[in-house]
Write a structure and sequence with these properties.
The chain is mainly α. Helices cover 55% and strands 10% of the residues. Strands 1-2 form a two-stranded parallel sheet. The longest helix is centred in the middle third of the chain and has 23 residues. It starts with a helix and ends in a 9-residue tail after the last strand. The relative contact order is 0.11.
Length: 204
């Protein structure tokens, strides 16, 4: 279960890029060779296929034309437009503040009975303490320069943890060691969160 709208957009872009890569590979063309035929910069095809650059309608048309799969164009185009709409909605939620973004997850949590969560870098939201969530969200607010409603957003996130105590729900959580080894804390001096390296932390 992916609970981050921004991550969902990136995952969708990566999946579209993989489809385009799978279309290109049978032709024997490298990403650089396809870019050359399309009249693009050398790295553009690679950026598109790795989900770094969203493809335009013209980019998709170039792919299917060069690779000889014109029949795939409309489906690829619809997929790309759907991703664009996801991104616009995510940006709208961000402008409205983090509380609205947190509330947007609630219906998904309410209808989910089996959670599968993988997190490589931080403690998953369902397991965060209020202080930890505050540090994370303060960082987001400072970086994105969005309305500061962190206190209200943290309350929503904490309320979602009630699902952990529902016996009818099942959770599979994989957390990389770095997510535990690099804890966030709030630093009022610089107006941003910081983390304490393991070597500098005192033993409990």
């Amino acid at each position: 279960m992916n609970t981050s709208p921004s991550s969902a957009v990136q995952d969708a872009r990566a999946a579209l890029g993989k489809r385009l890569r799978d279309i290109r590979k049978p032709t024997g063309l490298t990403a650089r060779a396809l870019a050359a035929r399309a009249g693009w910069s050398e790295s553009k095809a690679s950026r598109i296929e790795n989900g770094k650059t969203p493809p335009s309608d013209q980019d998709l048309l170039a792919y299917v034309t060069i690779c000889g799969v014109l029949e795939d164009y409309e489906d690829l185009r619809a997929t790309a437009h759907g991703i664009d709409e996801m991104y616009v909605e995510w940006k709208r939620l961000q402008r409205a503040g983090l509380k609205h973004a947190q509330e947007a997850h609630v219906p998904l949590y309410a209808r989910t009975s089996r959670f599968r969560i993988y997190e490589p870098g931080v403690i998953p939201g369902l397991l965060q303490t209020a202080d930890y969530a505050t540090a994370i969200m303060k960082r987001i607010v400072a970086f994105r320069q969005i309305p500061d409603d962190v206190e209200a957003a943290v309350k929503v996130r904490m309320l979602r943890q009630r699902y952990l105590h529902d016996a009818h729900r099942h959770f599979g959580i994989v957390l990389e060691e770095v997510g535990v080894a690099l804890p966030f804390r709030w630093s009022g001096r610089h107006g941003c969160p910081a983390w304490t390296p393991p070597a500098n932390r005192r033993a409990a």
